[in-house]
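Please go through the protein record below and explain what the tokens say about the fold. Record follows.
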Amino acid sequence: MRRPALAPLLMMAAAGWTSPAPARQPAAEAEPSLQSDTAPPENEEGPIVTPADQVESERAFGLFPIGARQAIERGYDLPPPLGASGMYIHNVQNMDSRNLAVTVARGVDPPEDADLIDVPFVTTRKLESHTSNSEFKADLWVLPFLNVFAGVGKVRGHIDIDVDIDLDAFVPPPICRPAKPCGHVDLPFRGTVDNTTVTVGAIAAYGGRDWFAALAVAKTLSVSEKDRSNIETTNIGLRAGPRLRFSPDVILFPYAGVNYFDLDATVSGVVRSGPVLPGDDTVNLRYRIDLSSSRPWSVINGFNLALGRRLSLQAEYDWGEGSDRLVLTATYRP
């Protein structure tokens, strides 16, 4: 009775994952080694594992993954335990706002230590983030089915915000009055994102000879040096698909799934209007606003290409009603 070969999968980043290359031949299909003088029993249940196979497994794996020898003897195919990856993510995300606090001044910037308060005459319209993240990650298979990883990187981009100010509520009479209303002013501005990121996460994976499935969870924290746009993301993805073997060294893993990507950001700064008040005065606004993903769920489509046991390449596109995300990853397992 043959047991399924584990399809090793590796989560990458807040967003993506890669699958390290499986062994050239699953243990359940391995031919008896020429170094063995004893043929395996024909009627014994379980995969064929010769003494030479056991020696090779012991040499390939040390402390991790825990239980590797037992898994190999049962017919599972395991990757090298350590991995290093380079990753690029481009993300466009529609946002919802909350906790908008401002202070407004006429003609000059409000002081940095000014108290920011909620004001009913300032509201937000467009809220959209555009970010690109470059990251390096290291991972370890702790158990044959459980991988943990950590990474550091850099995220750059911007967050577009449109603020609407009701001038009639902001500027008292006699400057703005019912007989001569000042109307509304729209202040589009852009919050800069230039942050260092730290990511931790884990992936649980399982599969058969011709299929795989993986559940990945990751948390990313990024902090701006200028305290302008601190960002926190939570990423949970479920992926599954076939395992297509083109040759002993080339295996393709196309997949589809669903992803939950929640982005929370705090943005602060100063924005200035043009001459909109009598006397050509400007409206200067110091703000702080909390943003979060408006629709965090998306559909996943992608593939992973394993080239031998040590190198894999991955591309993924996530599409949601309020987001678009592209993930590119290269992984090497020494």
